[in-house]
Amino acid sequence: MDPLIIKAIIVLIVFAITLLIATYSTYAERKVAAIMQDRVGPDRAGPMGLLQPLADAVKMFMKEEIIPSVSNKWLFILGPCIAMLTATMTGVVIPWGGPITIGETTFDLQITDLNIGILYLFGVVSLGVYGIMIGGWASNNKFSLLGAIRASSQMISYEIAMGFAIIALVMTTGTLSLKEIVLQQDAGFANVVYQPVGFVIFIICAFAETNRAPFDLPECETELIGGYHTEYSSMKLGFYLFAEYINMFISSAVIASFYFGGYNFPFQHELANALGMSANALSILQVVMFFGKIIFFIFLFMWVRWTIPRFRYDQLMNLGWKVLLPLSLANIFVTGIVMWAMGKL
Amino acid sequence: MSITQYIFWFLSFLALMSALMVVFSRNPVYSVLFLIVTFFAIAGHYILLSAQFLAAVHIIVYAGAIMVLFLYVIMMLNLNQDAEPKKKTYVRVIAVVAIGLMLITLVGALKGATVNTPELTRTAGVGTVETLGKVLFNQFLLPFEVSSILFLSAMVGAVYLSKKNLQ
Amino acid sequence: MLTNRSKQVVKREMTWLERAYFPAILSGMAITFKHIFMRKATVKYPEQTREFAPVYRGQHVLKRDEAGAERCTACGLCAVSCPAEAITMTAAERQKGEESLYREEKYASKYEINMLRCIFCGLCEEACPKEAIFLTDRIVPSTFERDSFIYGKDKLVEPKDQPVDVSKRQTPAVLAFKNDKKHKHNRTFLDKVLPKAKHH
Fold first, then answer.
1. Is there a contact between A59 and A52 (Cβ–Cβ < 8 Å)?
2. Inter-chain contact B72–A114, Cβ cutoff 8 Å?
């Protein structure tokens, strides 16, 4: 098969799965919230409420589309578009599984393996804030603007600590390609063994970057009504909410790839040998394991959301600049010293 | 023309147009947004020159961080067309004269220049992180460190200025 | 100090471990995780209904007697006893030929309870000398208009063919009172027709 067609198919599949997971994250969010509060959660639409996302989507589409007359129309429409675009762009560099061979051709379950994969991820994530900022400003509403401003300063603050956590990771792995990072973890231990502090910093920053509780200051309803999406209705609001869930999914995938071996799982080759699995079967199993890890991290996101109360804004900034930033710098320093002592530099 | 050339012309057009729009937009927020588009076009050029690292860093630093701060400040100040001060006539005249002189200088400088296509060494991985890192930390170690000290001192200065009780 | 349960509040400096927050966060997450396996408090309403307490007081009913005549005689004691002033009524005189409709010579031609005012205290039922009004375990349904909460006789009087069971609200004392034919108002025209020996 033409490699271009294979790529196109993989792109489509990744896009579809991203949307599917994000859709069902909305359902899972409500279900997790419910069971943690001793409730049942949505259970009316379909068996166990499994059609609830569909009902929500229909509701979102059918609602009246309101564009405030005092808003900046083009930017008002552009905001959710950018949010959605940047959210879906991040899935490109994530390796979803090992190589699959069909006939003569072998291809990786990855859209593209950039040699600057981590930087690409980081760049796209840093652009994500524009969707929020533009939407918030274009709404011409004080609450929206406050939400947008909070979002921008929060994201910039936590991007720095996140970047430093990644730098320590890059020091140990020596590569910026996600595929290589994942392959290295097949040979050795998962990176979380080498970078426990980096992992903690990264996951905290991931919470902040996706605007999830306890860092959901940009949209905190007790203070800002809806934050940056106060003025949004119908599917534009749906895009913003959807982008958040896609970001959560991608963050979970990135955390799993960076620190928990990606699609690898312990004793996979021994298992494959013992069961006499073909390489393709192993790859499929790896994809399943990877999604298992991703779903666990999505659950972790929700678990934290329904446990920890929201930060105050000054606490947020203190945590970002006075705790995480020095900690991540110290992490880089210690990583450097240990690597030097072990003669790896 | 090859597809690369098409992309080049498109990116150049985009960069120039949006750069012009930065200047001509009355609304500062539009200016910032067009500036971001310009940065993207330039990042595209970097990729065409197979300098992916530079492109990525360009996006992260300029579009992802600095422009966010620009936008942040402009949104906070709530600048718009009405806030723009009315310029006096003599200021406009001076500005036109200054720009005209600069144009003449540029044209004069470019008139004598000969167009030559530089021999590009298109070796694989010329713009990758490894190559760039080796060059930066071997060949240009001193300038690199000096510029980082410059940044550090600027940062210290900013922190000092933002202290409330300045004596 | 009335009880020994009060605690002296101490605001001390947090220790390093407390300031790190992580132990607190982890213990909080353990608590929420435990709740996953706990019994759900939800009652899936249309399929399941919550069990009512035997003393539950819901929507009122104006009872009929065994022959199907309205018991209410529009004495107004319920309206007087009502602390929320939710009950209004108009009395009318029974005409010839209406004996099977109304039990006494006087009856309520209009009887209204404003369900938005009613506090379901049950004092009307206590005050009623004719055992005509009872609170039942039915729920007053919600609607969108205030007017529809004023319940007239059409909603309050029990339908002839489907009597409302109020046996839960009838204490032995009430039952004894109701069955005691010594009281004139407990005698119906049926008692006149049937031989008196049956009761004494």
1. no
2. no
